[in-house]
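Methods — Computational structure assignment.
A single polypeptide chain was analysed. Its primary sequence is given first, followed by the predicted tertiary structure written as structure tokens.
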Amino acid sequence: MKFNRQSFFNSYKTNFGNLTQNQVSGLENLLNFIEADQALTDVRWIAYMLATVKHECADTYQPITERGPKTYFDKYEAGTAIGKRLGNAEKGDGHLFRGRGYVQITGRANYKNLSAKLGLTKDEDLITKPDQALSPNIAYKIMSHGMLNGSFTGKKLQDYINSSKADYREARRIINALDQAEKIQGYAVNFETILKNSLMKMAEGTANPVTEEEKKKLFENNILEINKMYVPAGSLVKNLIMELERDNRNTYIKLRNAVANGHQVNYDLVEGDSNLIINIANALGFKNATKELLEVRDA
């Protein structure tokens, strides 16, 4: 997925207000990482990731260190209840392995596990060099891997944001129980709008087109959603998808929230031309087609 920067920042200002240059730089970094991250196949995952960064990094969009005097981190020390849960085993671990990065990873166990899971080099190792978690590139890898795979709490993006729902409130459990869940939920809703307003058409031959593996996953997802629908309605949606993907159109959508035995289904644009979707849907006789919804006429 690619995002038009002018559209993104204009929409951001509409939803959140003006930006400082430091915030712009931070968001530019994040968008560059996100566009290169082929594991991200749902724009709503990105919306929740950005909402999390907005909260965890105090609206800077830069990797930061958990704030507070050194004594504040005594509660994380080895031997305390929190310290034991975080895997802190040596005196001083509470402060040494305090929160850092885009998602504020905390504790010796998390620093050690993520170093291994990300295959970090000796120079990047988070145990010997914990401030490496403040490097934007490493901080992004930690966030993406952790939120996609459940490395932080055992909960992952797919658990709460999938073809049947987008539960931005409960998704807070990926990071930190339900602390500030409603606030972050509101951020995510706004970011979803911002991202959809700025999602670019992927021209043929440009970098990072939909891969064959991604096409296979889209096909499997879309068939599951189509099969939930009233059969004739699902057949028309299937015809639309086939039209979008044929020849040089290269337009791919991901269906979600199909109404059981119904005539409606939501979708996200993965790659291609959103206007083409609406035009073809209208030509096929859909009752309604927007940039998020497909509705088939009753038989």
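Note: The beta strands are 64-65, 100-101, 161-162, 165-166, 252-256, 264-271, 288-289, 293-295.
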